[in-house]
Design a protein that fits this description.
With about 260 residues, this protein is α/β, with parallel strands linked by helices. Helix content is about 30%, strand content about 15%. It is built from seven helices and ten strands. A hairpin with a 5-residue loop joins strand 9 (about 185-190) and strand 10 (about 195-200). Helix 4 (about 145-155) packs across helix 6 (about 230-240). The radius of gyration is 20 Å and the shape is globular. The chain starts with 6 loop residues before the first strand and ends with a helix.
Length: about 260
């Protein structure tokens, strides 16, 4: 083995000390908030290079460091497997919205119309669920990438998402119904995030936009005007795993 070859560690930003070999130590953290604590900064500053998924994340890394002491940062977008997540339309009369995330819904007034789906073991199982839906709904406060959103685009589905955090790398007004975020708030969910940084505030304005977008999707389905999200499909073709590998090779070859 070449012990001087670069070593890439895809892991949390607070645990970037373990590497193999004597080559360039590259950390690839996938994070959601806009601030690092002292431990995270210490671990990231020990790296020779940092890979991140998006320009949003790159800006956060550089803003959290003195630019003169910040390791070089490369944007390496993640991808989607289009051999699995291919375009298809839901042919049922019902309009089905799909959210993949950690939000709680059963306590809402429409809880009896919401079906909770357990975790699936394979990507093909996930695809079968996405294929049965009409629209992906992602009112995310913050995301490190949001792969499920990109996979829904690849399936040709309409998507709704907040215009904030890492998925701004591939979301725009052509391929996504965007929810404008007009303010951030301290990130506090009582479990993982306890006010360390900020994330999007899902306030009344954001909720109103979400409702209007969902109504628009519903109306299009009812009127028979539902069409594939062709812009989303083209976006997914660009963000392939082949492209991810190519960007990694380019980054480590320019030394």
């Amino acid at each position: 083995p070449d012990f001087k070859a670069p070593c890439i560690r895809i892991w949390h930003q607070h645990d970037m000390s373990q590497f193999v070999g004597n080559g360039e130590h590259i950390g690839y953290p996938i994070f959601e908030l806009d601030r690092f604590n002292e431990i995270e900064t210490h671990h990231l500053s020990s790296l020779d290079r940092i890979f991140v998924c998006s320009h949003w994340a790159k800006n956060i890394v550089e803003e959290n460091f003195n630019r003169h002491s910040c390791p070089p940062v490369n944007v390496i977008p993640l991808g989607v497997d289009r051999s699995i997540f291919s375009e298809t339309l839901n042919v049922t009369e019902k309009t089905i919205f799909l959210n993949i995330g950690k939000c709680l819904y059963k306590s809402s007034k429409l809880g009896d119309k919401i079906k909770l789906i357990p975790r699936k073991e394979t990507q093909k199982e996930v695809y079968s669920i996405m294929a049965s839906a009409d629209c992906g709904v992602f009112p995310s406060r913050a995301e490190g990438w949001n792969l499920e959103l990109l996979e829904m685009m690849s399936c040709g589905k309409s998507v709704i998402a907040t215009d904030y955090s890492a998925h701004t790398e591939f979301c725009n007004r052509k391929n996504c119904r965007l929810i404008h975020i007009d303010e951030l708030e301290e990130a506090n969910d009582g479990i993982w995030f306890k006010g360390q940084g900020k994330w999007a505030s899902i306030n009344n304005n954001a909720m109103t936009q979400l409702i209007e977008h969902m109504r628009s999707v519903y109306s299009s389905k009812k009127s028979g005007n539902e069409i594939a999200n062709n812009a989303g499909i083209e976006t997914a073709k660009h963000f392939s795993w082949k492209n991810t590998a190519k960007e990694i090779i380019n980054a480590v070859s320019t030394e």
